[in-house]
């Protein structure tokens, strides 16, 4: 556990990362931005981890950056550069985590909180979810990282609507536009946990390989990365998990995947 962030692991290899500042709607402090990057890199390198859920304590996912500390931590150009480096580092680490990542978004997921959710592979909301990017109300232009995450999730036209209008969007609109993948009938976190358990039950090499191939293709790098993609496919096809899947199918039982 670290200040403002808590971890919980279950027996299936699902790790839940909780932002724990409910009194501030889980607004992210500079210390938290700095901690999230190394944390997600460590989770990505841990072979026991099958999926990672990001959520917020209390009734909200994340209200964005903690503006109340800006006077202290963003008072000079050097401070601002260091702050942006920490925030972008955290977001990029979540985006680049090789494990499947899910955001459980109840309540507010706005500004930097929306960015954290968009950095995850999948986003689950509920009836309380409200998401948006109010940068246009604050005279701010989002940089390439966060804008790129928004663009790839919702497309150009919807990204323009979200950024130009600075609206706080209800769950139904978030689902329609692509900010959310699912809206749970009850709370977001249990639904995200069920989805993570479903993913964790599958072959880890298949899930990790699918994520890497999709990311390469989304970046338009498939020609340059053809050898890498071939190696990913070949590794899965010659793995113990592949043989276990074949045996379990013939034996009419659930497979036991071990990630090798």
TrEMBL record:
UniProt keyword list: Lyase
Which Pfam family, just one, is annotated for this protein?
Answer: ECH_1
Q: Which InterPro entries match?
A: ClpP/crotonase-like_dom_sf, Enoyl-CoA_hyd/isom_CS, Enoyl-CoA_hydra/iso, Enoyl-CoA_hydra_C
Among Gene3D superfamilies, the record links this protein to: 2-enoyl-CoA Hydratase, Chain A, domain 1, Lyase 2-enoyl-coa Hydratase, Chain A, domain 2
Keyword Lyase set for record:
yes
Looking at the UniProt entry, the stretches that span the membrane are none
Tell me a GO biological process for this protein.
Answer: fatty acid beta-oxidation
Q: Which PROSITE patterns match?
A: ENOYL_COA_HYDRATASE
- Which terms does the record give in the GO molecular function aspect? lyase activity
| Similarity field | Belongs to the enoyl-CoA hydratase/isomerase family.
Q: What is this protein called?
A: Enoyl-CoA hydratase/isomerase family protein
